[in-house]
Amino acid sequence: MSDIKSSLDKIKNIPKDPIIHHTKGTLFEKIGKIDNAIKQYKIAAEYDYAKSQYALANIYYDKRKYSEAEEWYSRAYKNGIIDAAFDIGNMYFNIDAYEHCLYWYEKAAKEGHLKAQNNLGVSYFKLKNYKKSEKWLIEASDSNLPIACFNLGILYTALKDEESAFRYYKKGSIMLEENCKYNLAIINQNNKEEKDAISLYKYLHKIGNEKGCFNIGLIMEKNNNIDEAERYYKKSADKGHTKSQYRLAYIYDKRENYEDAIEYYKKACDKDHIHSKFRLGNLYNKENEIEKAKEYYTMCVESGMVEAKNNLAGLYFEEENYEQAKTYYMQAIENGCRESFENLGDLYYKLGDKENALSFYLRQSDSVGCQIKIGNIYEEFENYDEAIIWYKKASESGDSNSSYKIAQIYMDLGNNEQAKKYFEIAKNKNNINAYIYLGKIYFDEGKYEESKRYFEIPANDANTYSEHMLGLIYDIHYKEYDNAKYWYEKSRSKKCIESIYNLGLLNLRLKEYNEAEKYFKEGLELKDSRCEYMLAWLYYKKSIDMYSSLADNDYEDSKDILSKMPNLNIDLHKSLIAKFKLEEIINEDDEYVPIYILQINEDIDSMFEDSITDMIIDK
């Protein structure tokens, strides 16, 4: 700064000379004294010193004083500065005065000004004079101006001459023109030449082209190469590209990296990206930050997003603010949200209004969830014919529990054949209780082979009742006592009193009295009267045997006592059947909780950034 001041002091008293005044102006401009610079430039400009005229024009342009700028650019051009004509052309172009900019661009273009030639071509394109546009753009392109190659690509695309467009994009790409590389990548991608497209996108990623980074990120995401997608999205996201911020946040969200997901969703939200707001609402909902979830859902609702209306209603439903929930569910229904029919049905059901609940379920009757709930209500109304109809619909849609419920209704109605049919369907969908029911039905029918086959599945899954029944089948039907003991022991370990009793009885039949005594004692400890009775009988039998031995030896009055002891007839083959017991299955589908819409229908292919279609002027 001191050097500049010193230079100014030295030239203060030098005679008036435009070069000297221009030098002073340059020095004042460098130190930010623009008014002083204008004064000096004007003195020099009045001597028709072109450089000062051009400097004045630039200052007035920066000050947005366009009339003064045009005046001085015009004078500078008359005094030989070709760039001044180019700059006036740009001024008119920027206000869409294409007819006026043609005059000035052409003056510079005819002097060989490449940028003016390009901009003249762009202006003619704007005025739909494609022949003249082509003439000037080719002239600039032939002189290897990269941006002219790009603009020729745009021109030929508009004229449906894809081959020429490709040729000029290729030429500009070789000269490293960024926009040519981008549009060329789009062409390759549309032609299914993904390898070539990726190569170009990688270059664009390297130089930080936001659209190029996004598109290659999306290709990687589509190909399930998520780590690479993240890398490409991150570069453009950090430069402010909204869609990149959204997709990057979505990747973090799926990985449950919620801190980073929130950061990038919020960045996209700041630019009013509605899907980011919705997913952020879902994330906060999942994390139980309900007020924040409400905030973002509300933003989406204000933008008319149907799914957000359903989800906001769900939050009010869970808070038992039923009037607000009804309001938003009804809005969502009016906008075509099918999930809200079931949700509103659930709300009325929870309020005990089954008739209204039924009416909403019936309006969404192609939904499996609604079919089940319609069946439930009709069953509660004891309208079993209608219940069966709706459970059958749900069963045909793949719900095993509905098949099971139909079978149960038929069982209660005494229709075992229909019950078996639907238990079979439920069994084929791995409903464990269907196996148990089928085992019981076939056992009651005396079809022990079929019964055994069905009991084996739940027995191997540690179902106590089935273990006992397998033991019983091996005991009374097959007489395979080792297998009987094996299964009885399993259920005995879970204190199944019938298994304990049957083990005692089996050992009596096998004349293993000490083992029998052990099991009956165990039953007695569990306060079972049947085991207590059998233990007493066993001791009584032992007493008879002992008195019989004494009587054989004429010991005292043993014969007399023996003759008075009654003979107790016990049926050692009367084994016990355990109490019928099913597996307790928690069926989450029966819980009346709101259905939240977590996914949005998004067409990944439609997300790609498209080709650039506007020509670009050179500044």
From TrEMBL:
Keywords, in A-Z order: TPR repeat
Database matches in Gene3D superfamilies: Tetratricopeptide repeat domain
TPR repeat placement: 242-275, 497-530
One BP annotation, GO: ERAD pathway
Highest rank taxon of the organism: Bacteria
Protein name as it appears in the record: Tetratricopeptide repeat protein
